[in-house]
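Report of the visiting student (M.T.), summer placement. My assignment was to run the structure pipeline on a short list of targets and document each run. The first record concerns Putative multicopper oxidase.
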Amino acid sequence: PSALCQMAIECRMWRIFAIPLVLFHLIQVATSDCDYSKCVDLHVDFYHQPIVDAELVQCCANLKDLCDKTRCPLKPVACKEEFHEVAVKKGVCCDEYMCAPPKDRCIVRINGRAVLKNLGDTWDSDDPCTKHICDYGMDGKAQEKTYKEYCYHTCNNEYQLKLIPGQCCGQCVQTRCKFNDTLYSVGETWKSEDRCVLYECTKKDDTVAVATYSKQCPKLPTCNKRDIYIKDCCQYCNPRHSMRHSNNKSLDTDDEDYNSYEKHPCKRPCTEGSQPMVCRYKFIIEWYETLSKACFNCPFNATDCFRPHCITGDGSRRSVLVVNRKMPGPAIDVCQGDTIVVDVENNLLGETTTIHWNGLHQRRTPYMDGVPLISQCPISQEQTFRYTFYADNAGTHFWHSHTGVQRGDGALGPLIVRCPPSEDVHYKLYDYDKAEHLMILQDWTTLTGISMFNAHHHSSGDNKPKNILINGRGRFLNAPVTKMVVEDDGEMDLAASSSMVDPTSIPMTTTTDSATETTTYTTEATSRTTTESIPETTQRATTDATTTTESQTVSSGIYVDPKDDFGFMHDNNDPTMKTLPHAQERHTYVRNKRETPVDVYTTYLNESQHIPFQVYYVVHDKKFRFRLINAEFLNCPMEMSIDNHTLLVIASDGSEIEPIEIDTLVSYAGERFDFIVHANQKPGNYWIRVKGLMDCDQRFTSAHQVAILRYFGADEKDPKDPPKYDHVRGGRQLNALNRGMEDRTTISIAEMTNAYRDPDNGVLQKEPDFKFYVYYDFYAKNNTNFHVGGLYGFNEVLLNSQRRYTPQLNHISMKLPTFPLMPARHMIDDNQFCNSSTLANRGINCRTEFCECSHVLQVPLNAIVELVLIDEGFTFDANHPFHLHGSSFHVIGMERLAGNVSAEIVQELDRSGKLYRRLKGAPLKDTVTIPDGGYTIIRFRADNPGYWLFHCHIEFHAEIGMSLVFKIGEHDEMLPVPVNFPTCSDYTPEISDSTRSSSIHQTTASILLLIISIFLLRCFP
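After the run finished, the C-alpha cells were exported:
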C-alpha cells in the first residue's frame, strides 16, 4: 500500500488511491479482534493532509500515519475578532486551530467599541435606567445580561423632577418659589401686604430663590399732618386728599365695565399637558378724550397719569377712539389652544366698527376675522357682537379696529398667545418673558384720523404724522418755536417760526405782563417743590422765563380755579412716576375779572414735556424677551434701537426664525418682532430710540420718540444726553427701508431663516400652481371719490397740493360689496367680481380709466399660490407693507431694482429666470414690505377656504381701495355659517303699481280735503 500511495502522490492522483486504501484498512480493522474503544481517534483529512506513507501494525495501532508535518497549517498569531483566543484541537497528523471567545469573560460593545469585561463586572449604557453585568449564561458560558431600573419618585409643588446625566431617576429640582404657601414662577413678582417690599422669583446658576427689593419712598415735602396720606407704604402730601378720594373705588381693582384684564385668569404660565381655558373679555369701544378728568393733575403730577381711564398720548388734547378707555386697549394674554370669547359693544356715536385679530388665521372660525363686508356685517351703534375663536398659533399678535381709520385713533391692543416652554424653540435663549416688556408703536397726530383723512383727500391737508407714541404715551420732541403776544384787547398774536426746539429747553415757568392791568397771562408754581431728583436740563428750565408757544391751537387748555388750591400729589406707585417741579402750574387768562382757559399751543407743549416716558426694567446680566408691535396707520416706518445694547431677533409675525443679532430694527405697519435684550451693560438708564422714516423723516416732521431701559437699582432719572432725531446708530440693520437682498450692508426679511427650516416643502416646490403679478403705484386719475371731472378734476384744481394720486393694485380700486361675502355668499353673482382679465375681456382699459370694483382673485383649495408684488415707484418715493388675512406666507424673494421699474420689466426678468427665489428656509410672515422700485415674492398654500382680504396696511391707502380679495375654494368647501349670524344688505325695493295707485288715491283725498277746508272757511269766516 505504501508503494501505491507513493505512486499516487507522485502522480498527483493520491485521492484515487488513498480512499480505497483507507477502506481496505477499515475492513481489516473491522475483522480484527481489537478493542476499538481503546483506539486513538484517527484524525486524517485526506483532502487537506495527504498521506505520505502508512503501514499496518497490530490492532488499532497497526495504522501508523506518516505525515509531512511541513504541509500542516501554522498556528495563527492572533484572531481577527477582538479579544478572541486561539484554541487547538489535536489531530493524528495536523492540529486544528480555531478562534473562540474567552471562557470566563464577556466581550461587549460600549460606545461602538469592543470592551472585555470580567465575570461580575457591571457597567452603564446611554440609558441610565439600564444596567449591564457579565455573568454565566444557561450554557455555562460568560455572557452580557441587562437589568432595568424603575423609578417611583415624586416631588413637592415647587420642585420638578429633572433628569440628571448619569442618573436614572433624576432628582427634584426647584423650579418655582414658595412664599407664604403660594407658588410663583421664575420672573413673577409680587408685593408685601403693606406694599413696601417687592419680591421676585429669580433663578441664578440653577438656584431658584426669592429676591427682595425694598421700596424707596420720595422725600416728603413740608406738609400739614392732616394732608399726609399713605399709599403703597410711602407717605405723600395732598391737601383735601380724603375729600377727593372718599368715594372712589380702589385703583387696583378692575372696573366692571371698563376692564383692563391685567389680572385675567387666562394670563398664566403655559405648561405642557395643561387643560385649555375659555377666556372671556368685554370690549366697550367709544369716543373718549386724552387728558380727561380721569387724569386729575396729570401730567404735572406724573402719578396721576397712571390712573385708570387716563390716556395721555403726547400731551395734545384730542379725541380718541378706544376700547375700555385704555390706549393701547386691554391685553389678551392666553395660552395656545385656549378659546377666546370677546363681546364687543359699540358705544360710538353713529358709527359702525369691527375688530380684526391680526395674526390669528381663523382656520376654524372664518366668520370671526373682523373685516366688514367680507367676514361679517359692521357692528352698529349700541349693538354687541360676540367674537369666538381659537388661539391656534402662538406668537406676538395684536387686535385692532378694521373699520375706517379707527385704528389710528387708538382702537388697538396686544394679543399674545404663549406656548409651553417645551414647544418654544428659543426658550433657552432668554431668562424672562414678562408681559411688561411689550412695546406697541403708534404714529400720532393732533387731529382725529377722519379729520386728517378728509382734509388730505378733499382739500390741501397733509398726511404726515407729527409724533410717535410708545405704549400710548410720549413727549412731543420736535416742537416748532412760536412767539405769543397778548394784546391789549385780549387777542393773541401767534408768530410761528420754522425752527425746531428741544423740549427739554422749553421753559416750564411762563409769565407775560401786558400794558394793561386787566389782561395778564400767569403761571403759578408751588415754591416748595424740590428739583433734586429732576434731570439737569429740567432744572435749568425752571429758571427760564422766556415764553414759547406754537401756532396750532388745541381743543382746551388747563383751567384751574385759583381758589381750589389742592396742592400736588407725589405718588411713586409706578417706578416710572415722579412729580415734576410744576405740579401746581396754572394757566389762566384773565380779562375784566373773568377767567377763561388759555387755549393755545403753548399749553400742549408745556404739558407734553411732563408726560412720563415708558420705562422697561431689567436685571443686570439677565436676558429679556421683548415683543414689538408696529400699530402705525400712516406711512411712518419706524427704526428702533437701544443705546449700548444689541437685539437678538428670534421671531416675526408669530413665526420663529433663526436668531439674528442686530443693532437697529425697522418695522412697518402691522409687523411684529420678538427680540432678546441681554442686560450686560453697566447698570443705569439707556434710551430706547424710535425714529420715524418716510413721511415721518427729516423732510417732513422728524417724528421720533424714546423710552427708557432701566436696570434695577439704577437712579430713576433720564439718560444724560437729550434725544435727537438725527442720532445715528451704526451696525447691522434688519428690514431696512426700500432695500432687499441686493444690499449687502443690511439684512432683508427674505434673508431671515425659518427656525424650522422647511416646515412645508410643498409650498416651496420649484413651480407654484398659480402665479399672480400684483403691481401698484400712485396714478394721476380722476378718482370720482376725490376729483369730479368738469368741476374739480385732477388737472382742474388750482393747487398741486390739492391733486390726489390714487394708489391701485393692477390699476383697480377695491370697492367693497354691499353685503358680507362669507355669510351671504348665496347672494353672490360672479359678475359682481372683477380683476385684470375680466375687465380686459369687457374692453375696459384701466390704465387710462378709473376702475373701481370688487377685485377678487380665485384659486382652488390647497393650491400653491405665488404673488410677485411690484412697486413701480414712478410717482413718489414711498413704501407699502401688505398684510394677508387667513394665512401666513413664505417670503422667497425681495429686491430693489432701481428708483422705479415697470411691471412689464419685472415680468420679463422673471421669464428669463433673473428673479431669485429662495426655496429653502424661507421665513414665514403675514405682513411684508415691498421695496420702492422693486419686488417681493411670497408663497402660501391656499388651504383655508373662504374670502380673505389682502391689502396695504396703511389705513389711508386701504380705505381708498388698495386691496383685493382671495376667494379660496368653492362655496360648498367653506365652513357653514353660524346659526343666527347677522346679515345686512341694501334695501332698494321696486315701486309696484299698487304702491303708485295708493299714492294717487292719497293725493286725491288730500286735494278734496283742501277744497272742503277752503269752502268751510268762506262760509264760516
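The two ends are 177 Å apart (CA to CA). The CA atoms of residues 329 and 539 lie 35 Å apart. I thank the supervising group for their guidance throughout the placement.
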